[in-house]
Amino acid sequence: MLDDSSPSGTRADLIAAGLHLFGHDGFAATSTRALAARAGTNVASIAYHFGGKDGLRMACAEEVLRRITAVAGAPAEPPQMPPDEALGWLDTMLRALVGFLTQAPQAADIVGFMLREMAEDGPGLALIYESFFRHKHRELCRLIAMVTGGDPDSQSIRLLAFSLMGQAIYFRIGQPIVCRRMEWPQYGEAESRAIADRLSANLHAILRAEK
Amino acid sequence: MLDDSSPSGTRADLIAAGLHLFGHDGFAATSTRALAARAGTNVASIAYHFGGKDGLRMACAEEVLRRITAVAGAPAEPPQMPPDEALGWLDTMLRALVGFLTQAPQAADIVGFMLREMAEDGPGLALIYESFFRHKHRELCRLIAMVTGGDPDSQSIRLLAFSLMGQAIYFRIGQPIVCRRMEWPQYGEAESRAIADRLSANLHAILRAEK
DNA sequence: CTAATTCAATCAAACGATTGATTGAATTTC
DNA sequence: GAAATTCAATCAATCGTTTGATTGAATTAG
């Protein structure tokens, strides 16, 4: 089995198939034959490249991590800044998150796979959490603390950061329900902006009260 | 196949097994033999009582609907009331929701099954949504409108209601991640209250800004 | 009342189909 | 031509479902 260096055609195709099918149907409900068919290759290729179905799952998680860091940027320590500027930064991040979750057709498989892994508490979740999520959440806490003037490591702010992100993530997880109730056929550009505006208003209201 | 009248032992045991295993492992990953073993009966009982695995899934959804309406009460039209009282009502509902999602050991299987069905957009979701969720969300919108004085049917308030509920639901879906970051072994009484307090503060801040 | 019959319910066993994995030969790549 | 890769074919195991037999409690018949 190779590691990750060579982006062979078959290898990349299998990962793409995994991201789509694992996210769309779930890990258990996705057969190796369905994966191979979608990748346009033979079932034996899965064992050859990844050692097996589980190996492909982890390779998909690594691919998610790779792409997500490429988009969201490597987690960095945000520089000290005035409250208004930090708030603007948070607003930008929140809107980017909503856009990433609800639109971005090329990111649909990524998001789907990630949410599946989260719902199933799968092995890929641990990797993504430790390598990305953990630091991003800490970064969020620091920005919030710059706005409210609180302690970035306090339980209160850590929960606040989760509740802000959670709103956005829920709108993706609960998409079937939201669309039915809002009488939207699906999430389009206008719908995505309506959600972002709503959550942005929430962000400002919450942080203003927290000051 | 019976309908629902007789709460036969085997029938009830199979539904209990379904609620637990479907929610815990997912529908596809749960075998009929595992279901029968947990229910202490024979695999053939599934086909006999429910017509098959899919039938058991729907019976579980009906059971969820039955229990959830028994707890949350049938969706009713909230009477007109002053803003402060409506806000208090919303606060109580939010705290009850958090408590139901994060604690309530007897409700763990119910919540798990429901969230699974939501994540998989399963056939049980449509039933629960149409029979309960839809009306409950409308009830929520009316209460919010009483606080802010806006139109309960406006897109803005409908999205607001989703963002309030979504916060609570996310804390349950993202439990593995939240617990890791908060360094909590699991959700206990203190943790549940910390989350409820956080979301209650968000509720007040958002509705105050919305007035 | 007793015997014959029907019925819902459960069981062990087996069905064909599908699962993930493996094999060794064929093919491609360099 | 040697290594890397893909292929068809096959493996044992498990999948959801079905079968025919069996049980004990109702129901019916005489």
UniProtKB/TrEMBL annotation, chains A, B:
Q: Which residues bind DNA?
A: 31-50
Native source species: Paracoccus lutimaris
Say which domain of life the source belongs to: Bacteria
Listed name of the protein: TetR family transcriptional regulator
Which stretches are annotated as coiled coil?
none
A Pfam family the protein falls into: CecR_C
The HTH tetR-type domain covers which part of the protein? Answer: 8-68
Q: Does the keyword Thylakoid apply?
A: no
InterPro entries (UniProt xref):
Homeodomain-like_sf, HTH-type_TetR-like_transc_reg, HTH_TetR, Tet_transcr_reg_TetR-rel_C_sf, Tscrpt_reg_YbiH_C
GO MF entries = DNA-binding transcription factor activity; transcription cis-regulatory region binding
Keyword entries, A-Z: DNA-binding, Transcription, Transcription regulation
